[in-house]
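Quick one: structure for this chain?
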Amino acid sequence: MLLDFFRKKRKSSAEQAKERLQIILAHERVSNKAPFLDDLRKDLIKVIAKYVEIDPDQIDVKLQKDNAIEILEINIPINK
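Got it. Here's what it folds into:
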């Protein structure tokens, strides 16, 4: 058993690069940073501010992924 530990085959640089890329892609998928979210947030602020008073700093736009489903969640507190 102990000898098996020392005999482990080292991964090739291609295998290591593949693993690193998979980790980076997984991190980006989880980070909720779709490229269109900032533009969507700006457009929402422009349109909604025409009709009601809002605080742009309190608008929260998130994209959540759950297996094969993507959920767009938008929270817009309206001032009275």
